[in-house]
Amino acid sequence: MTKKKIIVKSTKDNSYPDLIDQYDHYLALDWSMVNMSIARLTKKMKHPVIIDVPSDLKNLKDYIKNLNGKKIMTIEETTTSQWLFVELVDYLDKIVICDPYRNRLLSDGPKTDKIDAGKLSLLLKNGLLKEVYHTTDSLYDLRMLVSSYDDLVRAGVRLINQKSAIYRAEDKSHKKDKILSKNKIKNFVLTQLDEEIEHYHNKKEKYKKEFEKIIRQNKTLRNLKSIPGIGTISSVTILSSVIDAKRFKKSNNYISYCGLVKHEKFSGGRSYGKRNPRYSRKLKSVYKSAALRSICYNSPIKDYYIYLINEKKLTEQKARNSIARYIAKISLAIIKTGKKYKAYTKRHQIVSESAA
After folding, report:
1. Residue 160 is part of which domain span?
2. What's the pTM?
């Protein structure tokens, strides 16, 4: 019995600006719970045809099916974009989920759903949209779990900070001391906070057990955990953010995506300093933390860190940043190749020579 091959569709092909002449219809969708605005352009049309009708997914699919030729559609990134992507991916030759942050034209002049859809179709046809990654891969659901865990942690930290603030008001520490105040309201508030904090810790453990269960079933996650400094939470955070490593053409693109490098501002033969790119704060935190953990115990990465300080004469901060970029490159390579972490032989030789 032959197994059916599962085809996973995604927007990993970011070369659509180079292929804009291949499409017969350029569609833009502005979707809401009440109505949907659809703008359409063809190769010869200079101005879009726009319709605004009540939101109905079935009618939208019928509208797309009735168009002959190759079709490309754009939708702005929002809460419903992944759902629309999954529902419409089989009806179109390509879907571009675009980054609203880059669509400055939409904020110019009067603003309605019809106007926005029309502007989006023009930007799409001219290849001026910044694509956001979406896919039908089941790993995309892992993002929801990780995002929910992050929300839980932020809420838990807020509760702990509230409790700490009450203790600090009496010049005490919530970790060491007890409130001796006879204030009934203060004691009541502390009791409620303690109950919520305990509930937070219980829920956090449930999430961790769920993550560990997923890791046992996923080889890539187990391989990521083989990197020094990368643990359970870090591994699921990395994979849920990357999903498909091939969407990053070079490791430098991924490092920039993680916010581990700065872009130089250069104009007229003069440098105006450096600035941070738009990056994933989540991944930056993961790799910065992994760099700190990996140099706290004996590992090839700690040996490399020592080499950077002693031989390359880097400061501790620059050496840690270099380690964070190194771990980021390793994790991307592991997702691409499906292999476990293995310290580079060349790096072992460098460390051995410096020790001698």
Report:
1. 140-217
2. 0.84
